[in-house]
Amino acid sequence: MSAFPRTVRLVKPDDEFTRGWAAGDGNVIQNLGFGCAIPHVVWVDATGKVLYDQVLVAQSGGAYLLPVHRPSGKIALVRAIRAVVKDMEAYRRQWQAIDPKNADQVRQFVLDCSDMCRFSWEVPRGMAQKWESLAKAGKREGQEETRYRLTGNPASLGPINGDTTFFPHLNEGFWCELELSATDVPEDKLEGIGPCKLVSLAEFDQMVDSQEIICAPTETVLRRFERRNPGVLR
């Protein structure tokens, strides 16, 4: 049985657990360590009509990395903990019981929401450092998270936007050859990523159907790789 941490409170900007989140200028929440800012933006046309009114999660941009193990015809996935509900029907019932215009009720809803945490099997990913290209970031993240060695230069699978409502930046998908030997790239132990496992195409589809895989970019990079490299995966 897997135990998930329960949300017991909403953190404040100066909380010790926020790892750098703070209130910035105006209406911006930011984390300079992560290179992330969340402003509230409104775009209007020449007549003053509102075209867009949302918060934007603005980041430096990063990479999704598909690790391909050619000898077995499998890909490597890593397990992450995500704040995503497991039972959407229960979530909807709880949401319908509150007044979404009441900020206090919405905050309490987040605190009380049933099963607001789950495991998700995904391809490695992460944000690029200032000195990194997206390809280098993808290879570094792939080795940090799988704990295996990646060889050669990552090949692009094209741009990917994880959420067209809230993300103004484009990440890029890549694939790289995986060797089943230990990497010397240090592990980022703060992320809580792992373990890693090799997955066949049939196993991947089963994991999608069982909702072990809920990450859209993971399926996107796999399908793009299959289309461009037929017969490699099996």
Explain the overall architecture:
- With 234 residues, the chain is α+β, with helices and mostly antiparallel strands.
- Helix content is 23%, strand content 33%.
- The chain has 5 helices and 12 strands.
- The strands form 2 sheets. Strands 6, 7, 8, 9, 10, 11 and 12 form a 7-stranded mixed β-sheet that branches. Strands 1, 2, 3, 4 and 5 form a 5-stranded antiparallel β-sheet that branches.
- A hairpin with a 4-residue loop joins strand 1 and strand 2.
- It is globular and about 55 Å long.
- The two termini are 31 Å apart.
Quick description:
With about 230 residues, the protein is α+β, with helices and mostly antiparallel strands. The protein contains 5 helices and 12 strands. The longest helix is centred in the middle third of the chain and has 13 residues.
Q: How would you summarize the topology of this molecule?
A:
Elements: E1 21-23, E2 28-31, E3 36-44, E4 50-55, E5 58-59, E6 62-69, E7 74-82, H1 88-96, H2 103-112, E8 118-122, E9 125-127, H3 134-146, E10 148-160, E11 171-182, E12 196-199, H4 201-209, H5 216-228
Give the number of DSSP strands.
12
Spatial extent as radius of gyration: 20 Å
Low-confidence stretches: 4-11
User: In percent terms, what proportion of residues is strand?
Assistant: 25-35%
Share of residues in helices: 10-25%
State the major sheet: 7 strands, mixed
**Helices and strands: which structural class?**
alpha+beta
> What is the count of helical runs?
5
Residue-averaged pLDDT: 86
End-to-end C-alpha gap: 31 Å
Give the CA-based shape. globular
Helix and strand sequence: EEEEEEEHHEEHEEEHH
